[in-house]
Amino acid sequence: MMPTPATSRLRFASIVAAAALVSLAGCASTPSATEEHHVVVDADRDVYRQTEQGVPILFQAPRDAVWKALVGAYSDIGLLPDAADTSMWAVSRSKIIMRGAYKGSRTSALFSCGETATGSSQADVGQVIANMRSQVSNAGASTRVATLVDAWVIPDGGTSSNALHCGSTGMLEAKLHKAVAVRLGLPSFGSD
Predict the structure, then answer these.
(1) Alpha carbon distances (Å) from 133 to 36, 88, 172
(2) pTM as predicted
(3) Per residue in 118-150, pLDDT tens?
(4) Could you tell me where the beta strands, DSSP code E, fall in 26-175?
(5) Residue 11 sits in which domain range?
(6) Domain total in the chain
(7) CB 3.0-4.6 Å disulfide test: which of 60, 128, 149, 179 passes with 76?
(8) Residue 188 belongs to some domain of the structure
(9) What are 158-181's pLDDT values in tens digits?
């Protein structure tokens, strides 16, 4: 059985996976927030983030303040949460439908879903269905937020039975984390 281009890319991506730590500071001498990304480069040199555990960020703020900022930040980026559970300290939005572009960004800038036979990004020519979930936890004197974005693309002319899994580029996670930082009074956190 011949491997598909998508499985070959994923297999290659797992071989060339590299970890990178990106620190984004909220103020000059004392970082208020640190976001960590695990980068994967696939065979086509597309870069996306490994999000098995989510993209974590540390805020030097109390858990309750971070929780309130996180719930509000989902709305700030246009995603009204469909769940916000303080027993698990988790906020989520499911079934985010995208086609071609989402909130001003090409879907291929948000997700790596493989390519069509003609070389077009599957994310740009199919329907992407994404789920986003953030978990808040204590981390010593800081509060940790880990955001996981998981997505699938249904190629044009296909059905959900032939959907392909997509890797996140980390843009949605970073946008959410920046919105949390702004709500916490750290407007210099990161960049657009």
Answers:
(1) 16, 12, 11
(2) 0.70
(3) 888 889 988 999 999 999 999 888 999 999 999
(4) 33-35, 39-41, 47-49, 55-59, 83-85, 90-99, 101-102, 105-106, 111-112, 127-139, 142-154, 164-168
(5) 5-183
(6) 1
(7) 179
(8) no
(9) 667 778 999 999 999 999 999 999
